[in-house]
Amino acid sequence: MTGPNSSPDSSPRVVPFRPGRNAAQKPPASPSPAENLSKFEGGPEDAQDYRHRMLVNAAAFLFVIALIGGAIWLADTMASMRKNQDCVLSGRRGCSPVEAGTSRW
After folding, report:
1. How far apart (Å, rounded) are the C-alpha atoms in residues 50 and 57?
2. SS3 22
3. pLDDT tens, 37-64?
4. Domain residue limits, the chain
5. More confident residue, 74 or 2
6. CB-side exposure of 104: number of CA atoms within 13 Å?
7. Helix H segments across 3-102?
8. Is residue 32 classed as helix, strand or coil in its secondary structure?
């Protein structure tokens, strides 16, 4: 049975790869991209930059810790409110704890 894409010669064909004329030639050597690295060598001003960078990193770390702490507090408060609301909506009494403080009355 022959389909629309079949040819009378249905055996697979292999196309040999032949490198071009310039394949044997090596590309010209390009200059090294890292020739002038002297501008990146450490100097006396690098110590101040390092100190400033470490202070900024510490401040960012403390800010992230504060954000995580706030998110945990917020999630805990929301869970507590949801628990109390479910208790009240189910018709039970005494769902919210009442703090009894000492009063002068």
Report:
1. 10
2. helix
3. 777 676 666 667 888 899 999 999 999 9
4. 47-91
5. 74
6. 0
7. 44-89
8. coil
